[in-house]
Amino acid sequence: MRLRYNAPVTLSFALLASALLGIDSLFGTHIILHWFTVPGAGQFDWGNPAGYFRLFSHALGHASWAHLIGNFSFILLLGPILEEKYGSLPLLAMMFATALVTGLINVLFFPTGLLGASGVAFMMILLISFTNIKSGEIPLTFILVLVVYLVQQVVASVGSSNISEMAHIIGGLCGSVFGFVLPEGRTKTKQISG
């Protein structure tokens, strides 16, 4: 038996985020604060090209190991399945798009900075419910996940925490949109004849 790098986008994403947090933790470089956190509304410098990089890169930055583990426990579970279903490049594009949308919405509407892969994790949570979709059908699993997920985020947003429910909701919406508009990567489901 040999090890296989079975989900290159998912694994590379997890390893890069871990390496960044490790470097920041060990050496106190503040690289995550300066390069992997998107600022809040009114703080974004539209004339600075580095700011545009941060609109995507914030998904790699994490505030703590608990934050990183919380996000990547979902990403490492769901990412390989989605990468096999949609392909590595389409999944990478979905991750970039989700990071961009959450970054832009944060910069335009929310006063606090944003970092972490929770938008990507929640995009994957909603997208995974489309794995067995057939043409013209909406999976019941999608409806149930959506309801449970939205209730959880609404309840969480009432309390005060340092967690961006906005990133979770936007990520989930992105996953839902991708599930409906990207059917070409889907594998055929086998019918059991009896």
Helix content: 55-70%
Mean pLDDT: 87
Q: Tell me the strand percentage band.
A: under 5%
CATH top-level class: Mainly Alpha
The low-confidence runs, each spanning 5 or more residues with pLDDT under 50, are 186-194
How many helices in DSSP terms? 8
- The radius of gyration computed from the alpha-carbon positions, rounded to a whole number of angstroms, is 17 Å
Class by alpha and beta content: mainly alpha
CATH topology assignment:
Rhomboid-like fold
Number of E strands: 0
Termini, distance in Å?
37 Å
- CATH superfamily caption: Rhomboid-like
Order of helix and strand elements from N to C terminus: HHHHHHHH
Tell me, what's the shape?
globular
CATH architecture field: Up-down Bundle
In this structure, how is the largest beta sheet organized? none
- The structural domain count equals 1
What does this structure look like?
With 194 residues, the protein is mainly alpha-helical. The protein has one domain (8-181): Rhomboid-like (Rhomboid-like fold, Up-down Bundle), CATH 1.20.1540.10. The chain is built from 8 helices and no strands. The protein has helices spanning 8-27, 31-35, 49-57, 65-86, 88-109, 118-128, 140-158, 165-181. 33% of the residues are buried.
